Amino acid sequence: MNRRPLLISLLATALPAVAAQKKSLADPLLLGVEQSLVDAGLAQAFQKAFGRDTGVAVKLVPGTSASVLSALEQGDVDSSMTNAPEIENRLEKQGLAHDRHVIAGGDFVLVGPVEGKGKKATDPAGLLGERDIGAALAKLAEAKAPFIAPLPGSSANLGELVLWRAAKVAPGNPWYLKAPAGTDPLALAISTGAYTVVDRGQWLRRGGKPLAIIVEGDPRMATQVVVMRSFRVNHPAAKLFGQWVSGANGRRVAGSARGWKGVK
Questions:
Q1: At what angle are helices 133-143 and 155-166 packed, to 10 degrees?
Q2: Same-domain pairing of 96 and 125
Q3: Is the pLDDT of residue 76 over 90?
Q4: What is the DSSP letter of 180?
Q5: Cα separation, 156 vs 264, whole angstroms
Q6: Domain named PBP: which ranges (predicted)?
Q7: Considering only CA atoms, which of 213, 215, 209 is closest in space to residue 190?
Q8: Quick check: is 185 in a domain?
Q9: Residues 157, 231: one domain?
Q10: CATH number assigned to the domain comprising residue 164
Q11: 59 shares a domain with 93
Q12: Whole-model pTM?
């Protein structure tokens, strides 16, 4: 059976539905954004500066990177701002998202409880001074020190899973703990004195004692913020937004946000 005419017919039937998703400049640009970028203030900085320069309203739709990219794939948002390279690469290769721009660079940090100051500072798992994140996580697992997992699907969660694989450790009970639904993992780690992984921008804005940065600077902890467009919706300002945030104006915004830097 020749399926080609049937396929052409189905595609022709689907085209009007895609065209119906076209929007106007009167509609706000729906930007799905990783929650930690909102917590760090980076997303609002881009939103405000872009609106000021272009007059286009941007509505932030926060969520985990995984949920945001799922919404982008389904056409529930016009554009996305995330740092989840594995999912971003998959969507781009599958042709489910396009017009990808790297707009900011940053890194994750391992934070944990610290007592004392300077050379006398110590942490329960003895990780202070370690520069190799793989070695540090292996020691943490061996010590069974309490670790609060970042929110499932968040950029920090996706990033820490890559780091655990690098450490050749499968985190689990009783020391690898998941925050109850509706509970902020970083706030829980601070209140219980546990270890966790968080992006530096969020830590600088929301972190505090008794936690401190334990491990930082390993190249494997680097992260990049990416903007992409959906294929299923066509907001006239979506392409402009990608060009603006990845250009000179966007680099200035990223460079002024604590914990982030602009990239070319």
A1: 90
A2: no
A3: yes
A4: P
A5: 23
A6: 38-221
A7: 209
A8: yes
A9: no
A10: 3.40.190.10
A11: yes
A12: 0.88
Q: Does residue 64 lie in a domain region?
A: yes
User: How would you classify residue 92: left for phi > 0, otherwise alpha for psi between -120 and 50, otherwise beta?
Assistant: alpha
Residues 204, 130 share a domain = yes
Share of the chain above pLDDT 70, in %: 92
Residue-range definition of the domain harbouring residue 71: 26-105+224-256
- The answer on 93 and 113 residing in a single domain is no
Neighbour-count burial of 203, counting CB atoms closer than 10 A to its CB (0-12 exposed, 13-18 middle, 19+ buried)? buried
C-alpha of 111 from chain center: 18
Helices (H) and strands (E) in the chain, counts: 11, 9
Type of residue numbered 152 = P
Same structural domain, 84 and 125: no
What would the two tokens of residue 152 be? Answer: 């499932």
Task: Please enumerate in sequence order all residues whose Cβ is within 8 A of that of 199, keeping only pairs 6 or more positions apart, or say none.
Answer: 36, 40, 83, 106, 107, 108, 109, 155, 156, 159, 223, 259
Is residue 113 domain-shared with residue 215, that is, in the same domain? yes
Please tell me whether residues 240 and 251 are part of one structural domain: yes
pLDDT digits (tens, 9 = 90+) for 110-152: 999 999 888 889 999 999 989 999 999 999 999 999 999 999 9
CB contact burial 228-264 (16+ within 10 A = b; e otherwise): bbbbbbbbebbeebbebbbeebbbebbeebebbebbe
- The structure tokens listed for 130 are 């370690």
**Residue 166, beta-bridge partner list:** none
> What is the number of structural domains in the chain?
2
DSSP class of residue 165 equals: H
DSSP 3-state of 85: helix
151-208 pLDDT tens trace: 999 999 999 999 999 999 999 999 999 999 889 999 999 999 999 999 999 999 999 9
